[in-house]
Write a structure and sequence with these properties.
- The complex is a heterodimer of chains A (about 110) and B (about 120).
- Chain A is mainly β.
- Chain A has no helices and 12 strands.
- Chain B is about 0% helix and about 50% strand.
- In chain B, β7 and β8 form a beta hairpin.
- Chain B is globular, with a radius of gyration of 14 Å.
- Classes of the chains: A mainly beta (about 110), B mainly beta (about 120).
- At the A-B interface, β5, β6, β10 and β11 of A face β4, β5 and β10 of B.
Chain lengths: ~110, ~120
């Protein structure tokens, strides 16, 4: 069955640290890939997406992600995090009509 | 606000009661999805509609769950004879079917159900 794995359930960083959140999926066909973010008390919002083309995609708020097809990975990165990045981050894979989600990573940024 | 809206935002009910949730998608979106999310997990797909047609239901969706989208606009999700295991956040999302794939889903705030 298709699945999405996020390697870290909780990450704590200091402001200005670099961030990388891992995401791997299991599916051999064509996929569309997403990172969503959920800030405290808010609903899920799209951070960035990959459909085709350049495997390095840039999203909002300085986030980027790289699709590596050979590794079935779509890791999220940000060179310098801010306190306002405290949130839960979800990786999702669109296969046909539905999104299959990872369990999420709770990111806490210490001021 | 033209985003996805859900009502109610919170629902507390006793075991055995029926509950109904409503979702209003973004107006021009022809696809509507329902997901369930429990603590510490990502959302799980329940069902989706294209216009008024329900095209797929997850095996997670027991016979106690039913969803409708009668006119291809808003949708309702009903849970009959609720059980404590139904306690979760129920999320609605909508999207615009695009040729060539690559469909972005927009999410509502969710309805948090607590079954006592």
């Amino acid at each position: 069955a298709q699945s999405v794995s996020q390697h870290n359930h909780h990450v704590i960083l200091s402001e200005a640290a670099s961030l990388e959140l891992g995401c791997n999926y299991s599916y051999g066909g064509t996929v569309n890939l997403f990172w969503y973010v959920q800030y405290p008390g808010q609903h899920l919002q799209l951070l960035l997406k990959y459909f085709s083309g350049d495997p390095l995609v840039k999203g909002i708020k300085g986030f980027e992600a790289e699709f590596i097809k050979s590794k079935f990975s779509f890791n999220l990165r940000k060179p310098s995090v801010q306190w306002s990045d405290t949130a839960e981050y979800f990786c999702a894979v669109n296969i046909n009509y539905q999104l299959i989600w990872g369990a999420g990573t709770k990111l806490i940024i210490k001021p | 606000d033209t985003g996805v809206s859900q009502d109610p935002r919170h629902k507390i009910t006793k075991r055995g009661q029926n509950v109904t949730f409503r979702c209003d998608p973004i107006s021009e979106h022809n696809r509507l999805y329902w997901y369930r999310q429990t603590l510490g997990q990502g959302p799980e797909f329940l069902t989706y509609f294209q216009n008024e047609a329900q095209l797929e239901k997850s095996r997670l969706l027991s016979d106690r769950f039913s969803a409708e989208r009668p006119k291809g606009s808003f949708s309702t999700l009903e849970i009959q004879r609720t059980e404590q295991g139904d306690s979760a956040m129920y999320l609605c999302a909508s999207s615009l079917l695009a040729s060539g794939g690559g469909v972005e889903q927009f999410f509502g705030p969710g309805t948090r159900l607590t079954v006592l």
